[in-house]
Amino acid sequence: AQKITQTQPGMFVQEKEAVTLDCTYDTSDQSYGLFWYKQPSSGEMIFLIYQGSYDEQNATEGRYSLNFQKARKSANLVISASQLGDSAMYFCAMRERRGQGSYIPTFGRGTSLIVHP
Amino acid sequence: DTGVSQNPRHKITKRGQNVTFRCDPISEHNRLYWYRQTLGQGPEFLTYFQNEAQLEKSRLLSDRFSAERPKGSFSTLEIQRTEQGDSAMYLCASSLAEGGQTYEQYFGPGTRLTVT
Q1: Were B110 and a residue from B17, B27, B51, B89 both cysteine, which residue would form a disulfide, CB within 3.0 to 4.6 Å?
Q2: What is the CA radius of gyration of chain B?
Q3: Per residue in A43-86, pLDDT tens?
């Protein structure tokens, strides 16, 4: 079974509008972390935002916020005031604890976001 | 530049040849990860190091793949007898783990491998 599901292969948004990218996850652990990364066409993965499973407040980083709904196992990324430079692939990832204290992230398949002028 | 660097950025090789990639992590980071990413997919974990110790390897890492981090600084990923299915982007990431906490991973630009 997929641990991270991103159901939107592609999304389009008008510049300056807000957009929500969906992510659902599957885990039986109580302690885990959720990440969003951006991958522009250059290929480099850029860390955007992190939410711990015990964090009660939704994470925010500038124009990025994570809508964390633990009971529904969803961790949607909200980008406010979209900019042309936001056009990229966006990956949701979950980090679960494994043996020896290691945390190995599992990535979703990504959502391609295109921002129109 | 204090980010993660990878060399080479692109590598074209013929099937059956050996290739080696290098990753230089952020200097204070003690953990280093290797991932493989194919078109239309997210990164898939291959292996990771804490300092010089290789702590975990994915089942994706066949016997033809080997990774080292000899002094706990840079790391190399070698693929022997390359196959066309090895064509992918190979990403390196580093992070800091201390006091039981593990922080976010920072990725390098990747090495794109094409096996002809």
Answers
A1: B89
A2: 14
A3: 889 999 999 999 889 999 999 999 999 999 999 999 999 999 99
Angstrom distance (rounded) from CA A50 to CA B103: 9
φ, ψ dihedrals at B45, nearest 5°: -65, 135
Q: How far apart are the first and last CA of chain A?
A: 38
Token look-up 């079974």 returns A1
A91 Cα distance to chain centroid? 6
Per residue, the 3-state secondary structure of chain A, as one string, reads CCCEECCCCEEEEECCCCEEECCEECCCCCCEEEEEEEECCCCCCEEEEEEECCCCCCCEECCEEEEEECCCCEEEEEECCCCHHHCEEEEEEEEEECHHHCEEEEECCCEEEEEEC
> Which residue type occupies A19?
V
Residue A92 distance to chain B (closest CA, Å): 9
Judging contacts by C-beta atoms under 8 Å, the chain A residues touching residue B112 are: 43
Chain A residues 83-102 within an 8 A CB cutoff of chain B: 91, 93, 95, 98-102
Closest CA to B32 of B88, B86, B101, B96: B96
B59 vs A17, which has greater pLDDT? A17
Count other Cβ atoms within 10 Å, centred on residue A51.
22
